[in-house]
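Known limitations

Files may contain more than one protein. Parsers should not assume a single record per file. Below, a two-record file is shown to illustrate correct handling: read the sequence, read the token line, then continue until end of file.
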Amino acid sequence: MLAAAIAYLAFAIFVAGTVWRVVAWARVPVPFPIVLTCGQQKSLPGIRAAWLENPWTRAGVACRLALEVVTFRSLLRNSRAQLLPGPRFVYRGDRSLWIGALLFHGCLFWVFVGHLRFVLEPARLGPANRFVDAGLLAALAFLFLRRVLDSRLRYLTLAADYLPLALIATVAGSGVLMRWWAHTDVAAVKRFALGLATFHPVAPAGVTALFYIHLFAASLLGASIPFTKLAHMAGVFFSPTRNLPADSRARRHANPQLAPARVHTYAEWEDEFRDKMRAAGLPLGRQ
């Protein structure tokens, strides 16, 4: 029953950590609109605005955020600065990260949906095929080599940034091995998963050591999500560069944290120094 205890503990840490991060993000004040965009902002009636690239309504923001989550549109416009002989400093489009991220997240989502057959009865969803497994491993290799071979990324990468990649690689590698080579008892795994889902855990019988490696690595990965960069799966919805309408030209934004400005008008200033100004021969607005 140690496997069930570790799975429950990892799930509890994941839920509590995610709630903690979400509450912390939600409490951060955002006094000014700091939207990142590449389209024309809404301003004067005669200027055509980009409703999707630079939305000024909540509906437009929802559409842009949905496309960002599903298709990674910001990565599609990724550019790379290069210093060429001459010297010439140029920007070139770099869509390799967009392709790798799209392949990785798509395959990972397919694998996750395929795993639902272990907790659904009857199972209506099929497992991932060889192409999905190969795509996931290839995308993982690309993301790892990109951090290792690129000198600038290698300089910016911390040691903790390799932990999620290592855990995902362990989970994916052990899963592929169990599916295609070192087969395990799928019926026993399903009984164990159904027991976890219904809070009546049973000890998995007839499974190999690879299953425990797979389970423990997945549990550690889930527990670490709120405390690593993998928390971007929830953080993207709280990013002020994505979730705010770009209406700073369409309407005035007043910072609620600033105290009302104490002004001293010219008329008040003239009333205060009227006698001295008249004695000095300065012109007065009112006599």
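...continuing to the second record:
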Amino acid sequence: MLALRGGVEINYPVKILAATAAPVIIADLVTKELVMRLMTYGQSIPVVPGLFNLVYYKNPGAAFSVFASGGVLRTLFLIGSSVVALIAIAVLLRRPTGRWMTIALSLIAGGATGNLIDRVRFGWVVDFLDFYASGYHWPAFNAADSAITVGVGMAIVNYYIAERKKQG
């Protein structure tokens, strides 16, 4: 634990959470703000023709446009789901976890917080990363969605590695 002035101690998972989630939140909010200031809604800028565009979309749904229709109830559901997820992550981080699981949960928390801030401010999130190839088009997403996806992937891999170690 790290002791601060006044006797307050910060434990290892909280340090990792702060060091991981804060940059994710900042990068997410800054990139979305740049898109909103520098692009017009619906605009598409080819970056790598045939593979990647920067776009400006307003996504009222969840990651990758899941639940894109539904109005105010959908927005309240998604805000509530984000809050519940963040509480669950806080509970999980109070338990002993390894460094990789702590980083994974911190990435998820940072991404969930970035999208939660947008959803509370606007009722939607800004999506701007648009990948496609050979007729396949992946739904546009943002930096927060990326952090959540990487965090979930890390958590799954970490779980399977831990299970294999238990089995010997």
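Parsers that stop after the first record will miss the second one. For reference, the second record is described as follows. The chain is about 60% helix and 15% strand.
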